[in-house]
């Protein structure tokens, strides 16, 4: 049987945002941090609807239109109780994952991910 040599670039973590616990996808291959409109509304965080744009994404092989931006989010990665700050989160009408955090935010927050074990190293 052929061996799969693809490199995993993603890790899922439980994350707390404004007392709401959800699963976030830490995606080292992503170029944008995005949140679903549904989760953004649950968080009751202001969405700047003047800051919309079109994002290119390899994941769906096309483009996504944003409906706004959340400028700052504070979160805690649950298992490790590791606080992080996320800036300029694009809000998407519909999204398979509730929150996708891109590589720059991963680096800026000092997160080291063991992708083999799907674990955050702090």
Automatic annotation (TrEMBL):
Signal peptide: none annotated. GO terms for molecular function: aspartic-type endopeptidase activity. PROSITE patterns: ASP_PROT_RETROV. InterPro entries: Peptidase_A2_cat, Peptidase_aspartic_dom_sf. Residues 22-62 form the Peptidase A2 domain. The keyword Phosphoprotein does not apply. Keywords: Hydrolase. GO terms for biological process: proteolysis. Pfam families: gag-asp_proteas (PF13975). This is 9341_t:CDS:1.
